[in-house]
Amino acid sequence: MTRSNDPTRVPQGPSAGRSVGVAAVDPVPIYREGLSGLVQRTQGMHWAGQAINPHGALQLAEQIHPDVILVDSGLDPHGHLSKLLIAGDPALIVIALVREANRTPAFLHDAIAAGVHAAIPRSAESRRLVEGIRRAYLDRRYVDPSLATLVSAARQSASAAAVRRAQMPLSRREYQVLQLVAEGLENAGIAKVLYLSVETVRTHVKSILRKLSARDRTHAVTIAFRAGILVAQPDDGPEQRLTPGSSAPGVVKYRSR
């Protein structure tokens, strides 16, 4: 098996004789396990990894470079995570797994504007999901038929949705740092999780405060939630918090075949 570990790679089709690495970002363990089993049973695909939150997703993309990543819409309602993932690896195919609560023109407009390549219902049956992954990987664009009318409506109301969409003023690393600040980690704990120096983390925090016009860390987190930069864990997500000293595998779980 050839692992997709080159960030400068370009997409390749089945004729290249390679297995497509698929990863997922979802807070529900049983759902991730189901996706893993489905992918591993599918010819031409292998399971590249999994993450439970946006911070973990960015680490997963940096460390493993999967070909395709499935993102739970509940973790990325404004497209911020998807935009950062694609910016970090233009060859990466990002597929939004759309929850019922996000089946709206506004969400789909934001997802498309962020560069998401495909949208599939999170409740889709296995055959439809596999077909969607294949189509998205080959064509770099796919919308499940059940979402097609919403996409059309999203394009018609693009200007209104653009006004509603929260902006992302933070860099990729600042976004990760802010998520860990929201989890209650101090600079030393954040440094251990991201493999950075404490001084570098301190610099990122200062930049976050400046960009968000925040008085302090708590104020920055409050502003970020209100602006949609940070989002609350979906209702069916695990009640899990990071602790100081957590290593990357505690946030990102991955394995290869």
From TrEMBL:
User: Cross-referenced PANTHER family, in alphabetical order?
Assistant: TWO-COMPONENT RESPONSE REGULATOR (PTHR43214)
Q: Per its UniProt record, what Pfam families does this chain match?
A: GerE
What does the record give as the organism's lineage?
Answer: Bacteria, Bacillati, Actinomycetota, Actinomycetes, Pseudonocardiales
**Signal sequence segment:** none
Q: In the UniProt record, does the keyword Cytoplasm occur? A: no
What does the UniProt keyword field contain?
DNA-binding
Please give the start and end residues of each transmembrane region.
none
Identify the residues that the record assigns to the HTH luxR-type domain, covering every copy.
163-228
**Segments of this protein annotated with the region Disordered:** 1-20, 236-257
Which protein, by its recorded name, is this?
Helix-turn-helix transcriptional regulator
Statement: the UniProt record of this protein carries the keyword DNA-binding: yes
Q: Which domain of life is it from?
A: Bacteria
